[in-house]
Every structure is written in C-alpha cells, then in structure tokens.
Fold:
Amino acid sequence: MEAIKAACIQAAPIFLDLQATLDKTEVLVKEAASNGAKLVAFPETWLPGYPWWIWLGAPIEGVGFTARYHANSIALGSPEMARLQQIAADSAVTLVTGFSERDGGSLYMSQAVIGPQGDLLLARRKLKPTHVERAVFGEGDGSGLTVVDAPFGRLGALNCWEHIQPLVKMALYAQGEEVHVASWPSFLLYRDVIYAFGSEASNSVSTVYALEGGCFVLASTALVSQQMIDMLCDRPEKTKLLSPITGKPGGGFSMIYGPDGHPLCSPLREDEEGILYADLDPTKIVLSKSAAAPVGHYSRPDTVRLVVDKTRRKVMSVVGEDVPSSTDQETPQRADAVV
Structure:
C-alpha cells in the first residue's frame, strides 16, 4: 500500500433529488481533492438519500415516495452513473459512494467504487438489507464481496449492518483488504430507545472492523437535514421517531480509524456538514498485523475457514437452445440471449 490522504464525507443529500445531489457530490469531491485527498468516501444510499419513511409509519404511508425514489435512483450504464465517474476523473480521486441502484423494477442498496480515471472498479449490492429495508430493496449476492486494486492499495466497502455479519467481514479480510469504506446512514433514528441504532454502538462496530482487519476504515455517515424532517414528518410522532432527542437535524458521526482502531482525526458536530481528513500510513498496517493478522499467522484454517460463493445470481439460465450454423441459409441468424 502507498501512503495517501483520505477524506470522509459527513453531509446530507438533497433528499430525493438525484441531479442536485450529484451537483453537491461534485462540490464535495473537488473540495476534498483540493486539500490533497486521493480517496473520498460517502455514506450509504447517499444518492438520492436513505428512505427513512420505512421506519416512520405503516407501509401504505410510504407509497407516495415509491415512484419518486425509483426515478431518482441510478442504473448502471446510465448518464447519471457516467457523471459520477466523471466527477472522480475530473478530480483524479478514487471515489466510493452509496447509491440506490435501479435495475428494472427493483432497487438495491449499492456502493460504487470508481477509480481516478473514471473507471467503475466495482458496483456491489448490500448482501442483506436490514429489517424493513427489505420492503424497498432487493438482496445482493457473493459477487459483491470483492476487494479491488485501487492505485494506492487493496480497497473494500460494505454498507451499514453488513459490519455486524462476521462471515461477510471475513470475506473481505481474506482478500488482503488494506483500506475499507464503511458507508452508514445517519445515527439518529430511534436512538433513545434502541441503543444499537445510536452512535456509540455503530461507531464501535467500525472500530472493531479496523482492529479485526488490521486495515484503515473510513466510516462515512450522512446527516438528517431539516428538509428531510419537513418532508417525512407530517405528524409529531414521526419527528419523535426520526429525531427523538432534539427533534432537529443531526445524526452525523463520521470518523476515520487506523488499523489498531484508533481515531485518526477529530469529529465534527453531529449536525455539522464537512469533510474529515487523515493520512493513511501503511506502516501502521504492518505494526498492527505483526500482532494479529486475521488471515495470516493469527488464523487457524485447519480448524475454521470460510467458503464464499461469488457466483453472480441470475433469474434465468438458457440450456438446450440450438445455435444455427453459418451454413444454414434458411434459419435467420440471431443474437445470443444475454441474461
């Protein structure tokens, strides 16, 4: 791994407005790059924002958001994805961002890893959306459990509570991950009654990931903005669920951790938008793993080991279909089916 400066974004999207949030993404990436960052990390479903309504009322209450959320999600190969790739290329940074991926009539909680020349190095889907997220999003598959070669080293990413799934984490550790992007939503919802949803528990998960994996972790969290509260909370009870302590914007607890779990920068206020920076020194990985390398000298594969199926899931496979020969003049040629 090469030493780099990394940037971790703490901000609120322009909720349910893909184009405006792409504009904001460009501004933030340019700012990070101007300050020397070579890696920029964004929160879970940054584009076009996390669908908080699924936690705030009965399913029927969210129907009014469905079409708009779908329309403001991103399809692979779309002009919007091309623009995201251009944003990375224009600032010559590696960009990791969460986005709602549109694929036909389905949505997925995805992350894009884009190289500094604008190449899409990885588009992965959250393996198992959490709880009521499954009312909006489909599941990913093992093909997304991939660590890529970024210009500075081995880079991986997971979303939110994928970080409390031990086997999922091990799948990335085992691929020699050196830098990890942990994309989170805001730590605001329900936090007065469900401790696991708050910043203390969630940040501890990111800390443990760094310590276990012996890698750097950029834990990027979004903010819940006043715009989002106004849009989503049509009753006081919903405001109490979304922002239970103050009823105000907040929920940002971004941080960058070293491979020993130590914070590498000072936090922002939870209601403050900004960018966290840290210098990632590869010698810290060496020192950390000299004590405990989870896939090296501190492992026991003769006793416990992980099996990962990285097959990309398909809804249909074609078998037994004849392909006309080039000498068959009576049967028209046709393209092979792509599934």
